[in-house]
Amino acid sequence: MRRFWIHHVLPFVFCLLPLLGAVLVFLAVPAAARGEYLRRLETSAIDWIILALGSVLFLTQTLLAWRALRWRTGGFDQRPDRWLTHLAQAAEWFPLLGLIGTVAAILQTFTAVAAMTSPDPKAIIEKYGPAITATGSGLFMALLNILPTWIVAVGRDLLASLAGQSAPDVEG
To answer: Is the terminal CB of the chain with fewer CB neighbours within 10 Å at N or C?
Structure first.
């Protein structure tokens, strides 16, 4: 029974932890801010690009993490490690994509405000909103996409300990 847990159940559970973390972070955002973000998301192309790329990257890393946590004869499956490292490095680009969206939205806000004779603060805030959503999307996807690699490192150590072996030496 212990073997079944170490070889099958725990690797699957570990791979679900980043998704659970993402849901908890999303739910921890105040409801009003979350609602405003979702409302602005409907019309923000840069957010859709960030979220789509981040989701594909996350799902790919999660599948690779599951493979990397599988116990094989002589240790863990280390074939996915190189790809996990490269994909985790790709996560560093999401804040930059969010920054591009932020700068574009700020420029759009300045252009719209400059055209107004006497801009209302409410109108300025309304136009500035997309800048914040792009930043939020980029940061959220960066956070989400660094978790699978961390889960592999921690999961391997824990699984090896539960199996009564020393933590594996994994070259990074």
So the answer is: N
Question: What are the residue ranges spanned by the domains of the chain?
Answer: 2-162
pLDDT 10s per residue in the chain (172 long)?
777 888 878 889 999 999 999 999 999 999 999 998 999 888 888 899 999 999 999 999 999 999 999 887 778 888 999 999 999 999 889 999 999 988 988 888 888 777 777 878 887 777 777 788 999 999 999 999 999 999 999 999 988 888 777 655 544 4
Contact status, residue 94 vs residue 138, Cβ threshold 8 Å: yes
How many H helices and E strands in the chain? 7, 2
- The shares of helix, strand and coil residues in the chain, as percent rounded to the nearest 5, are 80, 0, 15
Distance of alpha carbon 96 from alpha carbon 142, whole angstroms: 10
